[in-house]
Write a structure and sequence with these properties.
By secondary structure, the protein is of the alpha+beta class. It is built from four helices and eight strands, in the order ββββααααββββ. β1 and β2 (11-16) form a beta hairpin.
Length: 151
């Protein structure tokens, strides 16, 4: 493996043997090209550059899709109220008054990691404390369609 590869748009990506991947942090996002899946890193660079130029739009749509997929789990299993509160209005709970909206959910997420793989794109999001600090993991196909989202 080369010690580094160059992207016209993203600059120099340095090889990390422990992953193995070519890596670079741009802004607050850690980019990785998963070198264990292919011998031709050029394909991964092209895929990363394609995403890089539309990242803002991708991120907005991705967060909306993740919120849509995980909102019920959030509101049912990670409530925004204290179940042990003796004064809790359980009727309000049952009516969904403590539930967050998909919009609030999406706005809480922050993209942290992108791993470009041969067959998919893996993204990791900071949860904005929606799930007690756990990360949200999402996998997308090459057309940026959400394949899976988990905590």
């Amino acid at each position: 493996m080369k010690n580094s590869v160059h992207s016209k748009l993203m600059g120099q990506l340095i090889y990390n043997e422990s992953y193995p991947a070519y890596e670079r942090t741009i802004g607050k996002i850690n980019w990785k090209l998963d070198a264990q899946e292919t011998a031709d890193v050029t394909v991964l660079i092209q895929k990363a550059e394609k995403l890089f130029v539309c990242l803002e739009d991708f991120d907005k749509k991705a967060k909306a899709r993740i919120a849509e997929k995980l909102i019920a789990y959030k509101n049912d299993c990670w409530p925004e109220y204290d179940e042990n509160d003796e004064d809790l209005n359980w009727e309000a709970v049952d009516n969904g008054l403590y539930d967050i909206t998909e919009r609030e959910f999406a706005e809480a997420l922050t993209l942290h990691d992108i791993v470009i793989k041969t067959e998919s794109i893996y993204c990791e999001y900071l949860d904005g404390d929606l799930f007690g600090g756990h990360r949200v993991h999402a996998c997308f196909d090459d057309h940026y369609l959400l394949l899976e989202a988990t905590i």
